[in-house]
């Protein structure tokens, strides 16, 4: 029963994300199946069609109750289509309140939270780009992270 409920929750969230997309937003998601090896780079690929408009880059993280920490450290690298590094950052995001209550929203034991990565980022040209993300939590296999994604949103004037 728990697996069915989890599947239904993820399905509804996915359907919600797809139905809410507009022309000013690109979403790329990657399933981690509840465990993230520290040596595994998650590559989130997307296309930029209007590079002249600055973008907000937002990480989407879905975690469950098996995640053992209140924060998540990441190393994010923005790459162009020739794998040239445009930006590389070490990041620390808070996933829970000091009392242990998860931040974000969601069904059952899965929570989704959005984290600002870049504001007003200007891509140098139209085309394919990717963001490589590795977990920097000093644990070989990090449990409890179900999905990782990125939203690219045009900055509103």
TrEMBL record:
Signal peptide: 1-23
Protein origin, superkingdom: Bacteria
UniProt KW keywords: Lipoprotein, Signal
Pfam families: GldH_lipo
Database matches in NCBIfam families: GldH_lipo
Protein name: Gliding motility-associated lipoprotein GldH
Record organism: Soonwooa buanensis
């Amino acid at each position: 029963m728990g697996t069915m409920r989890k599947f239904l929750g993820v399905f509804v969230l996915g359907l919600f994300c797809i139905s809410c997309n507009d022309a000013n937003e690109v979403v790329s998601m990657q399933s981690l199946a509840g465990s993230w090896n520290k040596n595994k780079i998650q590559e989130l690929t997307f296309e930029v069609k209007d590079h002249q408009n600055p973008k907000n880059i937002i990480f989407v993280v879905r975690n469950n109750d098996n995640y053992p920490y209140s924060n998540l450290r990441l190393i994010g690298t923005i790459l162009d289509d020739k794998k040239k590094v445009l930006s590389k950052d070490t990041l620390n995001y808070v996933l829970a309140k000091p009392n242990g209550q998860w931040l974000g929203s969601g069904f059952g034991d899965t929570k989704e939270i959005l984290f600002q990565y870049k504001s007003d980022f200007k891509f140098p040209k139209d085309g394919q780009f990717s963001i490589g993300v590795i977990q920097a939590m000093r644990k070989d296999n990090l449990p409890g992270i179900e999905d990782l994604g990125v939203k690219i949103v045009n900055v509103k004037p």
